[in-house]
Amino acid sequence: MIAGKKVVVVMPAYNAARTLRRTYEEVMAQGVVDLVILVDDASADETVAIGRTLPRTKVHVHERNRGYGANQKTCYRLALEEGADIVVMCHPDYQYTPKLIPAMADLIACGLYHCVLGSRILGGYALKGGMPPWKYAANRFLTFVENLLMGAKLSEYHTGYRAFSRELLLALPLEENSDDFVFDNQMLAQILWLGYTIAEVSCPTKYFPEASSINLPRSVKYGFGCLRTALLFRLNRMGVLRSPLFYGTGRRPYHGLVSS
Q: pTM score, two decimals?
């Protein structure tokens, strides 16, 4: 706990057997995490078996592969059901260091922010950590366009290291989002739509064979999905469209629990 608030780490997993235990041990070593929720998206390796041996860990298994976005939907639903006040998503592939969990959670616990991102771009860690140059260039281009269309000033939209308050997760219409990788981007667009400020902390990252990564065709699909999300945001702000991403299935503005 931090400041009396329950901290739950969620891990969306797919074939993470080689790095899961190492990630978990560093997560729990931070001394602030009350529970880990591991959601396995029909892995073909020993991810589930290893997860079930880890103390203070609840394992949920998708019977079929439903996608990264669908995995996160399950993660956040289960965390809220467990009474989480602060939810931190940390991938079990050990690409992002769990040592930042206390800092990210504390920014939420003290009431300063409802969303905190671990940025690979701040501090120049992306290329230092081994991010392929083409991915770095795509990240910078997409982020520039997204900031332009959504009126934000984030260093990146594409990190998988994120922390959220309970209030914010309850406010977001996450079921309207994709079950694929663009879920991440749609979620940030919804947060900005509701008027929340997103904080960022500089995050060292590692790229190595065991770390998860999407291939070039899926990266291209993701990139176009991000551009589409940003354009939808702008067109909805202008009143030209009424997308369910921002207005819900009832086509009315989704205001949620916007913090004053």
A: 0.90
